[in-house]
Design goal:
This protein has about 350 residues and is of the alpha/beta class. It is built from 12 helices and 12 strands. The chain has a 7-stranded parallel sheet with strand order 3-2-1-4-5-6-10, with helices on both faces. The chain has a 3-stranded mixed sheet with strand order 7-9-11. It starts with a strand and ends with a helix. The structure holds nicotinamide-adenine-dinucleotide and thymidine-5'-diphosphate (TYD). Thymidine-5'-diphosphate binds near residues 90, 197 and 219.
């Protein structure tokens, strides 16, 4: 399948900006429209490389506003939608669940409704919901999430994504809307907002602040290079079967404390500090409420059916990420000024 007019929501965020760059470069005959509200997590600096590309259009707007959606559907006659816009940080969802309900659940339904209103005929159309493995809940020491694992979300963030996924599937079963979904593990790489584990640690190492490790530090995540996720989304968008769900993972499990140790060692080397210096900044702090112990993905369906596998080597990816943040300290300084700095200064004032 090929698509001529593609709406990407949340394209100024971390994963969205990598996806927009990939799609603009790979499909010069298609128009890529990026609809983004530019919340604290959205940043047009992430899109400098494509901003003047002839097949790219940015629109500042909210997926919760049906008038904006109607105008865009009228103007661009979308045949493909890739929906990433979301509130994405678990800790923020614990502090303020409402914005997660509004954007992740209600916003997704607004987008589904707009597709139904404007798509008179579903032939050649596709609505792609980009979701997370966190909807499956928490694993013990063994086992993996597959596409048939029952949903068991445990944070307001994962519950809001789970609700949205259910609604996307409901629109497929009830109205025949042509949908496809993916559930991906934790991403890392350039342009990730430094509230998530990896960029937060890199930034704090850079400025020699405490490295807050939640609880015992033995929580496990499966890390995927963001460029690999963007490639998987492109594969599923073009080759995935309508009505299906695909799990995406990096086959790259790390306990948080091991990952933080690795980042400390990489940063010491890149910043010419004495080996062991940054590990001295590690500080165990109060655990996150309801903290999921382990996530791990069985990504054999996407491998066997669509031929996708991750390409980035784990340590090489961490090194490339650390080096990118050091080279882009102006980006880091700009996104961590103001409200961000105030928040973390309060949060960790006593460390
Ligand atoms: P992000 O927080 O970096 O970016 C989200 C983007 O959505 C921002 O640009 C923001 O401005 C925009 N946005 C928020 N509310 C909006 C609204 N109401 N209308 C329009 N735009 C809005 O998020 P991310 O990490 O890039 O994640 C993107 C998607 O991928 C999310 O749906 C997330 O659930 C999913 N996901 C993320 C990960 C991960 O590790 N980051 C893993 C799996 C799935
Ligand atoms: P995070 O990047 O917030 O992703 P998610 O919670 O969506 O998986 O956190 C990844 C892991 O790192 C998670 O187990 C929580 C832990 N963590 C810390 O220990 N310290 C921190 O400062 C942050 C942000 C996360």
């Amino acid at each position: 399948m090929s698509y001529k007019n593609i709406l990407i929501t949340g394209g100024a965020g971390f994963i969205g900006s990598h996806l927009v760059q990939l799609m603009v470069a790979r499909y010069p005959e298609s128009r890529i429209v990026n609809l983004d509200k530019l919340t604290y997590a959205g940043n047009l600096e992430n899109l400098r490389e494509v901003e003047s590309a002839p097949n790219y259009t940015f629109v500042k707007g909210d997926i919760n506003d049906p008038d904006t959606l109607d105008q865009l559907f009228e103007a661009y006659r979308f045949d493909g939608i890739i929906h990433l816009a979301a509130e994405s940080h678990v800790d923020r969802s614990i502090e303020n669940p409402m914005s997660f309900i509004e954007t992740n659940i209600v916003g997704t339904v607004q987008l589904l409704n707009a597709a139904r209103r404007h798509w008179k005929d579903f032939t050649g159309k596709r609505f792609y919901q980009v979701s997370t493995d966190e909807v499956y809940g928490s694993l013990g020491d063994t086992g993996y999430f597959t596409e048939t694992t029952a949903y068991d979300p445990r944070s307001p963030y994962s519950a809001s994504k789970a609700a949205a996924d259910h609604l996307v599937r409901a629109y497929f079963h009830t109205y025949g809307l042509p949908v496809v979904l993916s559930n991906c593990s934790n991403n890392y790489g350039p342009f990730q907002f430094p509230e998530k584990l990896i960029p937060l640690m890199i930034n704090n190492i850079r400025i020699e602040k405490p490295l807050p490790v939640y609880g015992d530090g033995l929580y496990t995540r499966d890390w995927l290079w963001v460029g690999d996720h963007a490639g998987a989304i492109d594969t599923i968008f073009h080759k995935g079967k309508i009505g299906e769900t695909y799990n995406i993972g990096g086959n790259n499990e790390w306990k948080n404390i091991d990952l933080v140790h690795a980042l400390c060692d990489i940063m010491d080397e890149l910043m010419d500090r004495k080996p062991g210096t940054s590990r001295g900044l590690i500080t165990f702090v109060k655990d996150r409420p309801g903290h999921d112990r382990r996530y791990a993905i069985d990504a054999s369906k996407i491998k066997n059916e669509l031929g996708w596998t991750p390409s980035m080597d784990a340590l090489q990816g961490l090194r490339a990420t650390a080096a990118w943040y050091l080279d882009n300290d102006a980006w880091l300084e700009s996104v961590t000024s103001g409200a961000y700095r105030h928040y973390y200064e309060q949060q960790y004032a006593n460390l």
